[in-house]
Design a protein that fits this description.
Pfam families: SNF (PF00209)
Largest sheet: none
Keywords: Membrane, Transmembrane, Transmembrane helix, Transport
InterPro entries: Na/ntran_symport, SNS_sf, YocR/YhdH-like
Strand content: under 5%
CATH topology: Hydantoin permease
CATH architecture: Orthogonal Bundle
Protein name: Sodium-dependent transporter
CATH superfamily: Hydantoin permease
Order of helices and strands: HHHHHHHHHHHHHHHHHH
Membrane topology: Multi-pass membrane protein
Number of strands: 0
Number of helices: 18
Number of domains: 1
Radius of gyration: 21 Å
Oligomer: single chain
Bound molecules: 4-fluoro-L-phenylalanine
Length: 458
């Protein structure tokens, strides 16, 4: 294939094994754990959903994550150049990288809006203006925020500018350095909140809700949602892990790193569930509140416990921290593509990405105010961005990446990446993963997508 623009010695990357781990885990951990995971688990019946999500993570998520990182590290280039370089006979696999860039813009346009609410809530929690034991009141505060076009838009721009300014510092001094500081802080805050929550009287109910399945709630649409969550959680199917793979150190053990990240990410989700649900059950709220769970239920719950104001601020700071590493990784995809393929200097590529996102994000930011009347198929622009990315684009990207590694790239190169040029003996693992990616992963994703979208009837 054609050589990538900026391959080789001068290219930026993560500087240490710890840095690789922090950045990769930083990408996985985010709103997915604290906003999506509890609300989806709550709305879809608890433990049964959790089990389907676990299966998707193990059978689909983890192999794809390993595959993406391996591709990235082999090519040492952005997703478009990487797939171009590794594809046999000029086959157009690079289109998958282009799709990834589109998915990145789509995800960031709604993701940054949720983080906008989080930032606004940190400010409001610190000012003490959020707490009320009356859920009608906390609902009203949330509605007032999301239906206010000025606040929605300005907070989104604050969030985007914040992430952009970290990216301007570069891969090593920006992404790696920041995630290395934030990840330990995140675990500390989460453990504190969780420890506190488990002393509440509703803890028992919450744990049985999280860990005792109700099978009848599992429908094909629920399975698709669980699989979509697995993609979203592990940041796969859109080139993010490929991009980070291109920054991995040569000696980093890819399968071990991916497994560790998956396990740590899962712990964060479970801890978040154990921090949120006991509080919800203790004060008689419904666990099925959906996306507004953390914004409406949690302030009402925390109003009823001593020290609630401090806890509430801590909780939203926790979410902001978690979301930062994730947003850095999503935004890095278009930045490095614009940098390496269009030849823009990195700062310019970052500013251009920022500008595009400020424009595109408007659709999501205003979807409950000025643009609330635009609801094709009953979904707002915000809901469409969320739905299409997790349930369509990422799974499609996943199918393509599985097929690429299984059929096009070749097992030799894949095995070489997994074995770190022979230092480790991962041949059998490479064989097994190749077979899985060739025959099982694409078929499984395809079936779940078709069933979930109602193609087989419902
Ligand atoms: N994994 C992140 C989360 O769970 O919040 C979201 C995400 C990050 C999705 C990076 C996609 C991505 F490329």
């Amino acid at each position: 294939g054609t050589p990538p623009h900026h391959a080789g010695a001068g290219r930026a990357g993560f500087s240490s094994s710890l840095g690789v781990l922090a950045a990769t885990l930083g990408s996985a951990v985010g709103l997915g754990n604290i906003w999506k995971f509890p609300s989806l688990t709550g709305a879809n019946g608890g433990a049964g959903f959790l089990l389907v999500y676990l299966l998707s993570t193990l059978l689909i998520g983890l192999p794809l994550m390993v595959a993406e990182i391996a591709i990235g590290r082999q090519a040492r280039a952005n997703p478009i150049s990487a797939l171009r370089q590794l594809a046999p006979r000029g086959a157009p696999w690079w289109l998958v990288g282009l799709g990834g860039m589109a998915a990145a813009f789509l995800i960031l346009s709604f993701y940054s809006e949720v983080v906008a609410w989080v930032f606004a809530y940190v400010a409001k929690a610190l000012a003490g203006s959020l707490l009320s034991a009356d859920p009608a009141q906390t609902q009203a505060s949330f509605d007032a925020l999301v239906t206010d076009p000025v606040q929605s838009l300005l907070w989104q721009w604050v969030v985007l500018a914040f992430i952009g300014s970290i990216l301007l510092l570069g891969v090593t001094k920006g992404i790696e350095a920041v995630t290395k500081k934030l990840m330990p802080l995140l675990f500390l805050l989460l453990l504190l909140l969780c420890g506190y929550s488990l002393t509440l009287p509703g803890a028992g109910l919450a744990l049985s809700f999280l860990f005792a399945p109700e099978w009848h709630k599992i429908t094909p649409a629920v399975v698709l949602t669980a699989m979509g969550l697995a993609f979203f959680k592990l940041s796969i199917g859109m080139g993010t892990m490929m991009t980070y793979g291109s920054y991995f150190t040569p000696g980093q053990n890819i399968p071990a790193t991916a497994t560790r990240v998956m396990l740590a990410d899962l712990s964060v989700s479970l801890l978040a569930g154990m921090a949120i649900f006991p509080a919800v059950f203790s004060f008689g709220f419904a666990p099925s509140a959906g996306p507004s769970l953390v914004f409406i239920t949690i302030p009402a719950v925390f109003a009823q416990i001593p020290g609630g104001q401090v806890l509430l601020a801590a909780f939203f700071i926790l979410i902001a921290i978690a979301a930062t590493g994730a947003m850095l990784s999503i935004m890095e995809v278009p930045v490095v593509i614009l940098h390496e393929r269009w030849g823009l200097a990195r700062p310019r590529a970052t500013l251009l990405t920022l500008l595009i996102l400020m424009l595109l994000g408007t659709g999501c930011a205003l979807s409950q105010s000025l643009l609330a009347h635009i609801r094709p198929g009953g979904r707002t622009l915000f809901d469409w961005a969320d739905y299409l990315s997790s349930n369509l684009l990422m799974p499609m990207g996943g199918i393509a990446i599985a097929l690429f590694v299984g059929w096009a790239w070749g097992e030799q190169a894949f095995a070489a990446q997994l074995s770190n040029q022979g230092q480790l003996h991962n041949r059998a693992l490479a064989r097994a993963l190749s077979l899985l990616l060739r025959w099982v992963t694409p078929v499984l994703i395809g079936l779940v997508m078709l069933a979930g979208l109602g193609v087989f009837g419902s």
